[in-house]
Design goal:
Blueprint: H1 10-21, H2 27-39, H3 41-62, H4 66-78, H5 80-113
The protein binds zinc ion.
Length: about 110
């Protein structure tokens, strides 16, 4: 069968993902898959889910955690901005609770005095 340059579609990606995860996809097909993933966030998401499931299963089978840990660290690094934003929100929430506490104490003192 003659191989020629072609593009794969979303419905074809399904057939590529598992071989890719198992390192069984040949160079040509890997290139096609990567090219599609660069332009298709939906399929990239699908790969991420498959990757985590696949690595998770390997983790259960082997009892080792190096791949998943590295993946997790990479993901955490990538969402750093997100986390920083959440931290700022948490700080605001703490300040709000402290402020309400002071407000409540002041009201209580005023009630006792009045
Ligand atoms: Zn796609």
């Amino acid at each position: 069968m003659k191989k020629e340059k072609k593009e794969i579609r979303c419905k074809d990606v399904e057939d590529f993902l598992q071989p890719y995860l198992e390192d069984k996809l040949d160079k040509n097909d890997t290139k096609l898959l990567i090219e599609h993933l660069k332009d298709c966030p939906e399929c990239m998401d699908e790969l991420e889910i498959r990757y985590l499931l696949y690595e998770g299963l390997k983790l259960l089978e082997s009892g080792q955690d190096f791949n998943l840990k590295a993946e997790l660290e990479e993901r955490l690094y990538q969402s750093e901005q997100h986390v920083l934003m959440i931290d700022r929100l948490k700080t605001s929430a703490v300040l709000f609770v402290v402020a309400m506490g002071i407000f409540g104490t002041v009201q209580l003192v005023l009630m006792m005095v009045g």
